[in-house]
Amino acid sequence: MTAIARSSRILALAAALSLAACGDSSPTGTPPPTGAPAVSKGIVSAKGSITVNGVRFDLSQANVRIEDNPNRPESELKVGMVVKVKGTFDDRNGTASEVEAEDAVRGKITAETLGSIDVGGHRVEVDDSTEFEDNLLRLGSVAPGDRVKVHGLPMASGATRATRIEREAGSSDDFEIKGFVSGLVAGPPAAFTLKVTPDAAGSYAVTLAGGAALPAGVANGSYVEVRSLAPPAGNAITASAVELEDAKLGEAGSEAEVEGIVTSGGSASFVVAGVTVVTGAGTVWDNGLPSDLVPGVKVEAEGSLDSQGALSAHKVSFRSNVRLQETPANVVAVDPHNGTFQMLGITVHTSDHTEFKDSSGNPITLASLGAGPALVRGTLHRNGTDVVATRVELTSDDRPIVQGPVSSASAAGMTLSILGITVNAAAAEFRNQQDAPVSSDAFFSAVQAGTVVKARGKDAAAFSGSTLAAKEVELEGSR
Question: Are 115 and 162 in the same domain?
């Protein structure tokens, strides 16, 4: 069974609940035949072989490539690296034939703030999921003047969201960055515009130093690595070398999945990690709705590649799969957007990456919280218990809500454990992923560790201590 089984598993679940899956007969949303070649691009989330996009890959037969260097030991792969894995896999396990790891930026730190560093003047944003070699000191473990290697995801602004930051030896001013070519002038003198993603707002004007040449085959749309002996001057880079990189996710017809931050587009067509993703009526939306698909959200898209390299998605999964609703308490603000508060006894962390708004969509700050209920969307914190908020929105709905991955479930006891909260579902209505009612037996048979479930109480009094008396529980996603 290959990665296409992810979508099949959702359809099979719907059939098991005697309900039609969301879809039609159009190609988008229909998985390719089992046995198709497969590739997965995402962030290494665990070692012990490696886990990428929720799949644990056996690397015993894999050629590990680090920055184009083949046959590297598995030990050189680290949590937080962005990798491309080729092989065979299902929704939990796989066998890799090749793993490629490429960093995004290398250079000397020129500035540091609360939530970011500048590497050679290039903005690198840091959040709670960013891995450091020293995860205790984190940003405190690096400082201006240090050389670093950054693994990360491109952003619409032209910055990079760091997934891993490693210190490098030496003190040279050498600078490296990868991106897409546009406005190519073959020259002489040769020049082009470089963007970290084709639709990025920010860009660099690249010219070639004496003795440097463009690689054969470079064209508008090419993905390249630019190296220079000095950091950019403003938005200008004098390149000592330009190397053509492979930005293709896979071959036409391949089953593929890609994880990253949406940089442009909407639910019908969007760009993530430089890959165009097209959806249709048959696309399954996991842990969110099509209306949630906006630039800045982190998603995983699964489907098949067409001849132009676009991915026709049979499934789109939102990575912010946690929801909490209650009146925030114990608000601690470092500044208007960076701080913590508690909801349902869970500590919520906010940062400059968190979107704050009132019920009308107007901007707010941490100072606005505490007078009434709010809805938080986010992800599980790296400590495994707290929540990192991607959005905080004031609401008039005081019904408590907890949504997240289930850690344990008891059909006999009619209980679920979500984010450390015990959900008592004895008096609850049960719904499947299409929001249709199902029996409690069908619901619990579909739940396993990691299944995302949303539980909602009748009113504010439904939550007490660490227990939520649920009026409704609903399947939201596979992980």
Answer: yes
pLDDT along the chain (479 residues), means of 10: 35 32 39 62 92 92 94 95 93 91 96 90 89 91 96 92 94 96 91 94 95 94 96 95 89 91 92 92 87 86 92 90 95 95 96 90 95 93 86 96 93 96 97 87 87 93 96 82
Q: Which domain holds residue 415?
A: 401-477
For residue 15, give every residue at least 6 positions away whose Cβ sits within 8 Å of its Cβ, in sequence order, or none. 21
73 preceded by cis ω (within 30°)? no
Residues in the chain: 479
User: Can you say how many angstroms the Cα of residue 310 is from the centroid of all Cα atoms in its chain?
Assistant: 19
What's the CA dihedral at 396, 399, 404, 408 to 10 degrees?
Answer: 170
Helix then strand then coil, in percent of the chain rounded to 5, is: 5, 50, 45
* 3-state SS, residue 154: strand
Sequence-distant (≥ 6) Cβ neighbours of residue 110 within 8 angstroms: 118, 119, 120, 121, 144, 231
Which of 372, 394, 416 is the last residue in one of the domains?
A: 394
Instruction: With beta carbons less than 8 A apart as the criterion, state whether 354 and 125 touch.
Output: no
Inter-residue contact 473 to 454 (CB < 8 Å) = yes
Residue ending a domain, among 188, 222, 245, is: 245
Q: What is the CATH number of the domain that holds 229?
A: 2.40.50.140
Q: Are 157 and 199 in contact (CB under 8 A)?
A: no
Bridge pairing between strands 298-305 and 255-265:
antiparallel
Same domain, 373 and 407: no
Residues 44/77, Cβ–Cβ less than 8 Å: yes
User: Does residue 314 belong to any structural domain of this protein?
Assistant: no
Phi, psi dihedrals of residue 198, rounded to the nearest 5°: -55, -25
Phi and psi at 59, nearest 5°, equal -105, 10
3-state secondary structure of 477: strand
Predicted local distance difference test score (pLDDT) of residue 379:
86
Give the total number of structural domains in the chain. Answer: 4
**Burial of residue 95, with CB atoms counted within 10 A of its CB: 0-12 exposed, 13-18 middle, 19 or more buried:** middle
The answer to whether residue 262 sits within a structural domain is no
- The enclosing domain of 448 has a CATH number of 2.40.50.320
Pick from 155, 150, 128, 135: which is nearest to 338 by CA?
A: 128
